[in-house]
Design brief:
Length: 315
């Protein structure tokens, strides 16, 4: 059968950034969105909930209903509610067993497929894109998202598992707090260190297990530290995996150019800077435990270091 050109397909390919927060996904998302045929949309899993919240806006600074990119998506609030409902019922961590065993009702799967494909088709048209980057990752709300996009919605999904040393991710949350608490959307919850460690383990274990089951041509793991230390090599590998020439992005990174943040949903609060520059470094952390106090060192050693080691981070 003759291959359909990407630009003429009903819905373009999806590059899904999986993993846990505080791992550089917002930065990578914006970098990839600097390619002329790639559109990055941030944490798309939160589009419905963000749209309905008066205190949340698109990264461009406009409410979603006034944003030049998003405003044509929904005709009324009922459409927003319907998307939010079906996404939670299919993609949430509590629905993962039903998703993996394909036990959702047929009507529910049809509804999810219809609304999801319509959303991605809209994004592709708005961004004139051959590739959509969705950096929803693999936390509680999006634990089954890339699996559902591929196996329920029928999209062509490649999973880019972005990892960061779990000790650094934990320290970042402990020092700065959670993103939603920092932005004033929620009160910071208790037991932040324990919640972060468990969340980091679950998100990365799910991304690793489900991603690898798709095969090497659909799963690729990247260390955020390597993006900072060897950006050209790392981006070239991502481009080869995603079947897109990232030469334009690599050259801009080499010139230390700033990348404009588009119309991203959710993500790290740095998206509100409107421009992001990759802060390259060649200084690895030789003492990764030293930034954590003794309590959190013990916590992560007991519950997280086994997976940290599996992801390539030494003791």
């Amino acid at each position: 059968m003759e291959e359909i050109p990407k630009h003429s397909r009903d819905v373009p390919d999806v590059l899904y950034i999986a993993g846990y927060g505080r791992s550089g996904s917002t930065v990578l998302d914006v970098l990839l969105g600097g390619h002329p045929r790639v559109v990055s949309v941030g944490e798309l899993v939160f589009l419905g909930s963000d749209w309905q919240s008066e205190d949340r806006q698109c990264a461009c600074g406009e409410p979603y209903e006034d944003c030049p990119f998003w405003k044509g998506l929904f005709k009324d609030s009922r459409k927003v509610n319907s998307l939010e409902r079906v996404v939670r019922e299919v993609e949430h961590r509590h629905a993962l067993p039903k998703l993996l065993f394909d036990s959702h009702a047929e009507e529910e799967k049809r509804d999810y497929r219809h609304r999801t494909r319509k959303l991605f088709k809209y994004i592709a048209q708005q961004g004139s894109a051959d590739l959509i980057v969705d950096s929803s990752k693999s936390g509680r709300q999006a634990a089954g998202r890339f699996w559902a996009l591929k196996n329920v919605a029928g999209l062509d999904v490649r999973v880019l598992h972005l990892v960061r040393d779990g000790r650094a991710a934990l320290q970042s949350v402990l020092e700065k707090g959670s993103n939603w608490a920092l932005e004033g959307h929620i009160e910071e919850k208790r037991w932040l260190g324990a919640r972060t460690t468990i969340g980091w383990v679950l998100a990365n274990a799910i991304a690793l297990g489900l991603g690898r089951s798709l095969g090497s041509d659909r799963y690729h793991r990247v260390k955020f530290e390597n993006l900072l230390r060897a950006p050209e090599e790392t981006l070239r590998g991502i481009g080869d995996f995603a079947d897109v020439d990232l030469g334009p992005v690599i050259r801009r990174v080499a010139r230390d150019e700033a990348f404009k943040v588009g119309h991203n949903v959710g993500g790290n609060r740095i998206r509100h800077r409107r421009q992001i520059r990759l802060e390259k470094t060649d200084m690895p952390n030789p003492h990764p435990w030293s930034d954590l106090n003794s309590h959190h060192q013990i916590l992560f050693a007991a519950f997280g270091q086994w997976l940290n080691a599996a992801l390539g981070y030494e003791w």
